[in-house]
Amino acid sequence: MSYLRFDKTLMTNLEESLPREILRTNRSGAYHCSTIVDCNTRKYHGLLVMPVPELDDDNHVMLSSLDETVIQHGAEFNLGLHKYHGDVFSPRGHKYIREFECEKVPTTIYRVGGVILKKESVFVHYENRVLIRYTLVSAHSKTILRLRPFLAFRSVRQYTHENSQASRHYDIVENGIKTKMYPGYPELYMQFSKENEFVFTPDWYRGIEYPKEQERGYDFNEDLYVPGYFEMEIKPGESIVFSGGDSETDTEDLLQLFADEVEERTPRDNFRHCLINAAHQFLNRQGDESYVLAGYPWFKCRARDMFISLPGLMLANKEVEKFDEVMETAQKAIYAFMAGEPTDPKLTEIEHPDVLMWAVWAIQQYAKMVSRDAARQKYLPLVAAIMRYLSDSKHPNLKVHDNGLVYAEGRNKAITWMNSTAGGRLVIPRSGYIVEFNALWYNALLFAADLLQDDRAESDLSLQLRELAFKSGPSFVGTFLNEYGYLFDYVDGNGTDWSVRPNMIFAAAFDYSPLDAKQRKGIVDIVTRELLTPKGIRSLSPKSGGYNPNYVGPQMQRDYAYHQGTAWPWLAGFYFEAYLRIYRNSAVGFIERQMIGYEDEMTSHCIGSIPELFDGNPPFKGRGAVSFAMNVAEILRTNYLLSQYEI
């Protein structure tokens, strides 16, 4: 039985099936995302969603959906599903679904009377092309397959509505048509592996609704343009492949292309393989450059997220070359930033004060998970350049003070990962001596000092960094550790934040910590008592003021909750690392039990992946982006850490 399989009972119950989403990507920016019953519930959903750089830096929904109709003896059975006003779903094709599984590719089995039709879909690697293979498993009489495309041609952040500017023009191409609704867009090619008849019956389907957007307090309805439909006979045992893309394809090759793409897929037959498959989806190649997207469906590449994610996404899976490819792209942006030159616009937020220290942390994991010699050979110049830049206080917003700690100004601008704003104002204005910045700083000082000490050209820098660490360590303890055994979140002049937040866990997790073993244990214990949930680490303790654990409602309401009690799985990776340092082999059983909570997510939300965050209170419902890189990465890295311990 497939690891990711859903039977008729679940599929026909929309309360159960609509919250479950499926994501496929081409690793170049385009994706297909919908629910497992192919009913779009977000404005970000679509069968072919792709970047159109000629217009802007957003993704655009080109082909929203493709409705199938099975025709026998003149009777039509429509397999599509859309939501309209008044909680009306039409044409309710989900009632024909017998089962859905997604071990290699999303596969839906429909049963209509004596007809059994199998539908499978793939996204072609590094090409803006979605393929759908229809196979008539069995039929007692002549069967006609009719396919009706719903077109949007709009940004994922907007909606389309019936208008007179939309072009109805189309051209016949091999076994299909090409069309585009508006100037500036590429042509959309819709072709089949078999000759077919295209019937031009242009119309707008009005008032389609997206309930997920309604939940989030946004506009939630649009009209979609349908130029007509394709029709062809399909015989028992026959397969027909549909191609939707921004370039023409050779239709004679479609059946083989589909088979080849399926063969390349990682089977999602267990928890780890699901995470590896999800990890591959975040890798984004643009020409010769490689990036890591922060998440789907709306995130782009953010520097902090990328460096935190790299070890888990790549090194935990022994994909060292991919790590090196991304770091090669990142190095260019880092050197440009330190030189005061324009940086790669695709790699955002590189100016944030902690980002360069996270880059050093990623290289530190490379040294541990690959080899120290390889890290020294590949990344020593970069580590030296970063640490020289930071220790000389050349960063515009990270200054080394006489006490050895680093100071950053964050009263009026978000500079940490806790970056939510509401009404233009910071929800959590973290500023001054920030706890994870200084934990990162101490760790980076000693890792870099050790890495550089055998290099003659950098021996003086190594000594300088070690001296800074000897000054920074006692200052860290004196500044952050309070009488209750946990760490202040930030200290700025006379302002001290006593909130119990998860950012102190980094000081207990990193290889080099200014804390002794007893102090580390105290931090782990308080995180366990107040912040640990089955789905991650809370961003704020329920005992602290302002606790707001449910990420629901309109934008402003969600902004206030974003870091005020919601649970984040990626933080659990560092918590587990700290827990292993303290309890070693005896921690393995506890962490394995905790991991069950994440495995449960493989059949929920975006199947086979982990969403952005969870409510901080039961039932710990998943929220935000459907697939989040740091979460997937840190769960994979936790699996790697567990593999290093023997019971």
* Class inferred from helices and paired strands: alpha+beta
List the total number of helices.
17
Largest sheet properties: 9 strands, antiparallel
| Poorly predicted ranges | none
Separation of the first and last Cα atoms:
31 Å
Widest β-sheet, arrangement of strands: 1-9-10-11-12-19-16-15-14
How many β-strand stretches?
A: 37
Helical proportion? 25-40%
Could you say which overall geometry the principal axes of the C-alpha atoms support?
elongated
Rg: 26 Å
Task: Kindly estimate the percentage of residues that lie in beta strands according to DSSP.
Answer: 25-35%
Mean pLDDT: 94
Task: Walk me through this protein's architecture.
With 647 residues, this protein is of the alpha+beta class. Helix content is 32%, strand content 27%. The protein has a nine-stranded antiparallel β-sheet. Strands 2, 3, 4, 5, 6, 13, 17 and 18 form an eight-stranded antiparallel β-sheet that branches. A three-stranded antiparallel β-sheet has the order 29-30-31. A hairpin with a 2-residue loop joins strand 10 and strand 11 (115-123). Helix 10 packs antiparallel against helix 11 (459-480) and helix 13 packs across helix 15. The radius of gyration is 26 Å and the shape is elongated. The two termini are 31 Å apart.
